[in-house]
């Protein structure tokens, strides 16, 4: 095959997708030789998509071709330039905006109906009197049950403009007839701060799951509450946080750094450098800080960890972070879809780029986690590969490295006890939360008078409940799984799921963290500092 033929599919792909960006009219009176000899690249590509629309022998859904082709083009740029189709834009925007319009319940489909797990605290459903365990059967006369309804159908019937009302019919166990509720739709937060509570008398804990528009406000509220409780130290948990808005990360860093300290700088293809500094507004500039990261802490999480580490602020605890040092900008494509295109690289205050190489392609790039396992790096800090050419020094003389993630100051290996395939399957399958809902549904009153802290500190999941869960899983998977080797771990997950459905507001994390080796390490570091 000649080189021209070899690259023809890629050229055609680029042509089709680029035509979407350009738009414009095609003059079909031009001759073919003029088409490819005198017009600009944009005109050529625009003409090609129009030729396919008007002259191609078969009817083609050009939109679907373009979607596939745009993705193909972006895959040849870098791993983080992505296309967002029109149908996904609302969901993606809501997730990053940090709120949505709704009735304020967490639910899951249970026996072909909407089962309320918990009414969101302060939300319109809670105010109307809807409770966990309720089944929402009708909305404005439309049925919300039946095998033919899927999740999106159910959600669509509950959605509507802000401040509009929806009439609901609800089944509640123990009631002789259906209950009627009128709920006013309102803005419902999608929480990005999963939990905030005191680990010790002086050490507060905040876990952030992403950096959305609302994250700074959530973080600031959590920080203020912890300070009111006497926190003089903060553990900021950024594990498994994939990132988000750069500006939000900067605001959070600003709470910890003194005025005029460099947070990061970005550089685009033209060499333009933009520097971002801390201001004087920080409320925790003098407190002791620990930042928890792991191999899934990426992007904005790494901005926070890198800015603090390079300014000799706090202690970074955990494992080497993901290694994403590229900045994306969302650009509207005019038809409701968008592209998040990489427009610059960011650098930590010492000048290091933590973006790992993607020269070998996206497949190799995303295989990095398995490479880390095979190399032993997740278990032994000595196995982390560093390059002397990428060595940098902080103002206080600490050596840090660029070239692929933030290397922590204190290494904590991955907890092998939680890497069992069965445990991972149980966490991801949803079986635990579904089982817990069924258990609660048997007798919710049995839990109604247990205070949150009493449940977290004193409640014990019975062995009988673990065996019931084992039977529950085996019945639905047609297997013979036994929990003998990880009986205690399953107990903990069941208790955490119970707490989440009963209390919400970080109760799940508060229980899971009780046996977390990285949290234990932070508590030990905090105690050791006190003795010095």
UniProtKB/TrEMBL annotation:
Keywords: Hydrolase, Membrane, Protease, Serine protease, Transmembrane, Transmembrane helix
Superkingdom of origin organism: Bacteria
Pfam family, one: Peptidase_S41
PROSITE patterns recorded: PDZ
SMART domains in alphabetical order: PDZ, TSPc
BP-aspect Gene Ontology terms: proteolysis; signal transduction
Matching CDD domains: cpPDZ_CPP-like (cd06782), Peptidase_S41_CPP (cd07560)
All copies of domain PDZ, residue ranges: 89-159
GO molecular function, one term: serine-type peptidase activity
Membrane-spanning segments: 7-28
One GO CC annotation: outer membrane-bounded periplasmic space
Database matches in InterPro entries: ClpP/crotonase-like_dom_sf, PDZ, PDZ_sf, Peptidase_S41A, Tail-specific_protease
NCBIfam families documented for this protein: prc (TIGR00225)
Homology family: Belongs to the peptidase S41A family.
Protein name: S41 family peptidase
Native source organism of the sequence: Aestuariibaculum marinum
